[in-house]
Specification:
2 domains; six-stranded mixed beta sheet; Deoxyribonuclease I, Chain A; seven-stranded mixed beta sheet; elongated; 338 residues
Length: 338
Amino acid sequence: MFRLLGILITVLYAIAAAVMVWPQFFRLEQTFPFAQLVAVRGAVLGGFLVIAVLSLLLLLARPIRGFAASLLIVSLLAAAATGAIGTMRGYGSGEMPDKTDASVRVLTWNTAGEAVSAESIAETILDQQVDVVTLPETAESVGERIAVMLREQGHPMWVHHVQFGDVDYGPQAWETTILISPELGDYSVIASSEDGSSNTSSVPSAVIMPVNGAGPTIVAVHAVAPRVDAMSRWQSDLAWIADQCPPGDFIIAGDFNATVDHLARLGVDGGDIGYCRDAAVRTGTGAMATWPADYPEFLGAPIDHVMASQNWDPTGSLVLDAQGSDHRALVVQLDPAG
């Protein structure tokens, strides 16, 4: 009887481990609680290793040695698979190649309101020679202060902004601010982003298009977090973001509140979401967590992304210090493909 119970537990554990390692195979990557678990692959890896150690100790008890050995094998296989996935996506903090005249550098940073000062953001933009900045949870007034500081340093940028609700009485989570170098041309936020008729559900995103039609369309995104009571809105937000990268010239950056695992069924023709590809995954930093910033980088969730259409080649990326926010900053370099 005990042997049969041990076999049943081992089989159930093996199934659960398989789902946690690769939930998209079972089409569960956007389903509670697997969506939450796969977001923190480093913590899941640690859990498998803890179970493996406990199984080793149970091997000392002869009556349950076979059961313990089975748990040990499943745990080690699951840990190895989880570690291999993280290694392929990249555990490095990243590096940047030399910037060319054709390169575009993109910074995304959920600043948690004014947890990060305008001065710190401006300094980062200058240090990293950034051309496009997406700042979820950042007020337009902060963006304007940043632009003034950048102009004084000879690095002008235009400020764009979208908001939900009355920001005089609401949190800065209801705002998203974007800065774009004039070297990319003149840009304008499309009307459907401003009035919310085509947007993410709870916190605002923005589609910013070149006025003269030349240059990439830039999408600054902020999806709702996948809380238990917001799963359907989160799923619809990710679907909306995927729709913003059809064939063409697009750069999408922001707080997706999702890892690339959650996007598994939203990519088209080699893209990770729509036709866009994740720059961090392709430059060796895709497994480094951007949230929460007070956890080690290998334990949290890489939910902030820069994605680009296939006419751009990601050539470098850096995960930067949070400087007070609960999100780390991510900066990537994109070069024209070919």
